[in-house]
Specification:
Elements (H helix, E strand, L loop, with lengths): L2 H7 L17 H24 L4 H4 L8 H5 L2 H4 L10 H12 L3 H31 L1 H4 L11 H28 L2 H5 L6 H18 L3 H35 L21 H32 L2 H8 L5 H26 L2 H5 L3 H25 L7 E5 L2 E5 L1
Antiparallel strand pairs: 1-2
Length: 395
């Protein structure tokens, strides 16, 4: 096979350009966000079943909707070896047999809806913020070119994470204070009642207690999350196809081929999309993993804070309690770090394994997010990257 024939096989004629439509409203952004959040939850369930691990290991849900089902399962409490009865489906089957079908709407549905809703808010906020910071992204086109720079996507991701943290603050407060024994003792009949009564009990001061840590974790974590995803998906992909297809020398082609254009292989872009999801998950874990360890220690002091805050104390006293809780967290963290040989050894203990478990559902969710975003995007002109006298055409 001659060099000219090989180069010719890697080219195809371009299709006619489509006329752009008017700007699409925010319904497409909301649909993309909800679909991505739902896909992450569903993919987490499937992956958890096949890998024989709880869903929480693969996708750090905001609220553990199987906490009560796990607490009433005798096999879980006995620390038996894994079996299908300890999977998500098995836990729910045992719970339904014990408490009836009302267990689903009363105990499972509230946290499950909360998880999907928070995820939808995250993705939708990101799309809206990115559209304001990067004008081409505001047009909701199927392909944005030139793509937004990393600085812009980082800021949009930080804003989306901050918005999510604000909305999820009450759920975080309820989650860390939840005790399955309260349900078993009959203090609360459902998750709905637990949320209502507990919120009245702790108030806004209890919601904001320790909120600095999750706010920092969400803002920085999702800033790296989205900026890494967009950079690998767009800039790295465009750079690869430009360099790879740009190595073809058009002056070696027959004259009639000089009017042809290059259309990259269809499998290249999905590969970069999957790679982007994996890289985004790793980048996010670099921030969220160490902060989560500190957060787990800090939340243990909330019980003492709730007890003291029930009495009528001044704002200055509340600030003193806040400061004392953070000082106690630092002291406990330093003690653990000294035991493991330093802060880095402690903060990133188990980082590799937790990241590996997080990658599958995160990558799947981002892929669905991108596909749905393009599904609801408007048709626009094809993207043409000029290189060495010919065009690389992308749809």
């Amino acid at each position: 096979m001659s060099e000219n024939s090989t180069a010719t096989d890697r080219r195809s004629e371009t299709s006619q350009s489509l006329q752009p439509h008017p700007r699409q409203d925010s319904k497409g952004n909301a649909a993309s966000g909800a679909s991505a959040a739902g896909a992450r939850a569903i993919s987490s369930q499937l992956i958890a079943f096949y890998f024989r691990a709880p869903v929480k290991a693969f996708f750090r849900t905001r609220v553990d909707y199987l906490a009560f089902a796990r607490a009433i399962n005798p096999r879980v409490q006995a620390n038996e070896s894994w079996s299908w009865r300890m999977s998500s489906a098995g836990l729910l089957t045992h719970a339904v047999r014990t408490y009836g079908w009302s267990f689903i709407p009363n105990q499972v549905l509230p946290p499950l809806v909360a998880n999907v809703g928070i995820g939808a808010i995250l993705y939708t906020s990101y799309l809206q913020t990115l559209g304001r910071l990067h004008k081409p992204s505001a047009e909701s086109a199927k392909r944005v070119y030139p793509p937004p720079p990393p600085k812009t996507t980082f800021v949009a991701g930080c804003a989306a994470g901050a918005i999510q943290s604000v909305v999820a603050a009450p759920l975080d407060a309820l989650s860390v204070r939840f005790r399955p024994t309260d349900m078993l003792d009959g203090r609360y009949k459902s998750m709905w009642q637990y949320g209502y009564v507990k919120m009245k009990e702790i108030g806004m001061r209890g919601v904001l207690a320790g909120w600095t840590l999750p706010f920092t974790k969400d803002a920085l974590g999702y800033g790296l999350f989205f900026s890494t995803f967009e950079y690998v998906k767009a800039q790295s992909y465009y750079a690869f196809i430009t360099r790879y297809y740009g190595s073809l020398n058009p002056w070696n082609l027959p004259e009639d081929d000089l009017n042809r254009v290059i259309r990259p292989h269809y499998a290249i872009e999905p590969f970069f999309l999957l790679l982007a999801g994996m890289a985004a998950s790793v980048a996010q874990q670099l921030v969220q993993h160490p902060i989560s360890l500190v957060q787990d220690i800090h939340y243990r002091s909330l019980a003492a804070y709730d007890k003291k805050s029930k009495s009528q104390v001044s704002i200055a006293e509340h600030l003193r309690l806040y400061s004392s809780a953070y000082q106690q967290t630092f002291q406990q963290g330093r003690a653990r770090a000294n035991q493991l040989g330093g802060w880095g050894s402690w903060l990133y203990k188990g980082f590799l394994w937790n990241t590996i478990k997080q990658v599958p559902s995160t990558s799947a969710g981002l892929i669905i997010f991108e596909l749905v975003r393009r599904r609801y995007g408007i048709d626009a002109d094809v993207v043409r990257i000029q290189k060495d006298g010919y065009d690389i055409v992308l749809r």
